[in-house]
Amino acid sequence: MHGLSFDVAHLLAGSLVLISFMLLYQDRMLALLNVFAAQAFVLAASVAWQAHIQDAPHLYVTAAIALLFKGIAIPMALRRIVRRLGIHREIETVVGVVPTMLAGMALVALSMVVMLRVAAEADPLAREDLAFALSVVLLGLLMMVTRRNAVSQVVGFMSLENGLILAATGAKGMPLVVEISVAFSILIAFIVIGIFLSRIRERFDTVDIEALDRARGERR
Amino acid sequence: MREFAFRPEVAAFLIPLAAAGLLAILPGYRLTARLNILACGLTLLAALSLFVLPRPAPGGYFLVDDLNIVFVVLSCFVAFTTSIFSASYIGHEIEIGRLTPAYLRFYHAMYQALMFAMNLALVTNSIGVMWVAIEIATLTTVLMVGIYRTHEALEAAWKYFILGSVGIALALFGTILVYMAAQPVVGEGAEAMLWTVLVSRAGEFDAAFLNVAFVFLFLGYGTKVGLAPLHAWLPDAHAEGPTPISAVLSGLLLNVALYAVLRFKILLAGNPGALAPGPLMATMGLASLVFAGFMLYRRRDIKRMFAYSSIEHMGIITFAFGLGGPFANFAGLLHMVMHSLTKSGIFFAVGHIAQVKRTQDIGRITGLTVSHPLLGWGLVLGVVAIAGLPPLGIFMSEFLVVSSTVAREPLLAVPLVGGILVGFGALMLRLSGLAFGEPTGPSDPAKASYVPMYLHLGLVFVAGFYLPPMLVAWFQHVAAQLG
Q1: Are B225 and B289 spatial neighbours (Cβ–Cβ below 8 Å)?
Q2: CB distance A180–B132 less than 8 Å?
Q3: How many residue contacts between A and B have a Cβ separation below 8 Å?
Q4: CA angle at residue A197 from A192 to A203, to 5 degrees?
Q5: In angstroms, rounded to a whole number, what is the distance separating the alpha carbons of residues B307 and B140?
Q6: A 171-210: CB under 8 A from B
């Protein structure tokens, strides 16, 4: 198992976690979007690599969706929204960088402990993929909690979803992966269109703190 | 020849899908409202025919068993009566210009799309398809909650969207974990996501995997059930959307999410090494009940108040299923049916009341039994039923829940009864102001459709005295299956 295929998959999945950390401390909107686009590219590479080593051609579709939709189209749309709203210079976090990073490390440690123990029986590639995926999911949640404006919450949600796609592709032979990634893309497209159409007038500052409090409740 | 046979479980979601497409392009309020009713009626017929027509062979892509027939028929029935209510409600909204024809088309299409998604979630055998269907159901309801496009409505829709999406995401992670647990035993591919296959071999799965998976699934789908502390979207979504959607949310969508939880509960019960999901469900259920009971006192908005009452009752139902055993499961099922019927009946009344009084503010709605006797007394009957006064159906199911708790876990009966009584007090307090006294404020003549409301309340009333033996036997069977 410890061959090239394992190492590359490991490297790519680990990079996703690393980029999730980079997302946590970005304080400019445009930089945040760039980092997110980078994460989508790495995800696409990771999914494509899984498609290659699992010999599962349908996963290339998921990789293409990650690349074109999440790596290019969505960041472009969000960049336009951010510019139109004039919030590209804004710095917004509820919690400071240091506590956020510490919380992020704790979450990664937690998911490693939980997943590596739970999946002790599974094959090592799937096990470590799952641990990385859970880390990305939890870091995405953390980001949704520590941000107050709608665009960066959406970025948090999308990075959370990257973790899910990583888990789904890491699970060998899982059916419906393509369908699920399409369903998620529709969901995200709706969110982005929703922000674009409805919140363009009010510069979304009132809503999200409430939602944030609740999202914090999600992680209990 | 088998290919061409009528498949009611397929028809139950294909009819709404076709209707959604049709309603999206047809203009005109009268025609589309009737078509909406017609489509719901046909779906209900298809659902009812599940009782008599042969079921699909187990192990295929669709699953019809005693458990989901109850859910499908209940959903289709409430959706049908709601569509009748919706026709008169929406007629008024068009008159006062709150909805434009374009939005109306959208509304009807979304209504049918929601029906499609819910029925698909209920009859599919694949846990992956179930997840996709519940995601579509979330999307359609989000769009309908925001349909008035006021600031509050958009805010409610956004909150629902973010919380619903996070819930959905957690549920997907749980689904992936279930697949990972099944894959070494069942093998790769679609088989390892079919619920019937999973259940039959659950005993061989890795228990630790299933445990973690259930936590994610329960938190994820539990968000959609509206369990505290994940309930924050629910009151807003109920209060700001059109009232037919409040009725559908409370009467159907919460149940569908609960159904997903129950499916996975059965799965875990099949594995001796896995944790017992009961205590987790019972704890969250009780917490929701007590929390919502107290929150009921501070409500100023009539729809918001009944939304909290929904959280309370979903708490009771989750608690009953968490307690488990044939008796408590029976009580939970009965309570679920009674709650769906009563709560949607109440929302039918509330929708018309908010229209004739031009407000949802509880303080400004008074003396309804004097100004609008039919609506007022309907509301009184509904609130009396939902508060759990004898002799109505909810009293009976609550009584069953309480008595099975006393028999099994007497200590848990204290917070249970306490929560029910707290909620009861709040509802009675508000009811006296709403229904009695001198009517004040604007009061338009009601052009309401009373049939759906009184039909629901009548059924609940009758259920308090008499349950058909066939229904009782059916529920007992399902309760035994739930374990």
Answers
A1: no
A2: yes
A3: 136
A4: 90
A5: 19
A6: 171-176, 179-180, 183, 186-187, 190-191, 194, 198-199, 202, 206-208, 210
Note whether B193 contacts A176, CB cutoff 8 Å.
Answer: yes
| Residues A163, A40: Cα–Cα separation, whole Å | 10
pLDDT over 70 at B427, yes or no: yes
Interface with chain B: mutation pick from A107, A114, A166, A214, highest number of B CBs within 10 Å: A214
Report the gap between the CA of A98 and the closest CA in chain B (Å). Answer: 25
Residues ≥6 apart with Cβ < 8 Å to A75: A33, A34, A36, A37, A40
Tell me what percent of chain A is helix, strand and coil, each rounded to the nearest 5.
Answer: 80, 0, 20
pLDDT of residue A208: 46
Of residues A175, A198, A207, nearest to B189 (C-beta): A175
> Is residue B37 a contact partner of residue B87, using CB atoms and an 8 Å limit?
yes
Q: Is the pLDDT of residue A205 over 50?
A: no
- Cβ of A168 within 8 Å of Cβ of B176? The answer is yes
Across the interface, do B184 and A122 touch by the CB < 8 Å criterion?
yes
Dig out the tokens for B311 from the structure: 């959280």
Cα separation, A94 vs A148, in Å, equals 7
Domain range for A74 is: 4-218
How many angstroms away from the CA of A22 is the closest CA of chain B? 21
pTM summary value: 0.90
What percent of chain B has a predicted confidence (pLDDT) above 90?
47
For residues B6-32, give the mean pLDDT: 86
- Shortest Cα distance from A172 to chain B (angstroms)? 7
Is-contact B19 B39, C-beta < 8 A?
yes
Of the pLDDT bands very low, low, confident and very high (cuts 50, 70, 90), residue A92 is low
User: What is the C-alpha separation between A14 and B297, in angstroms, rounded?
Assistant: 50
Number of domains in chain A: 1
- What pLDDT digit, counting tens, does each position of A136-162 carry? 999 999 988 888 777 888 888 899 999
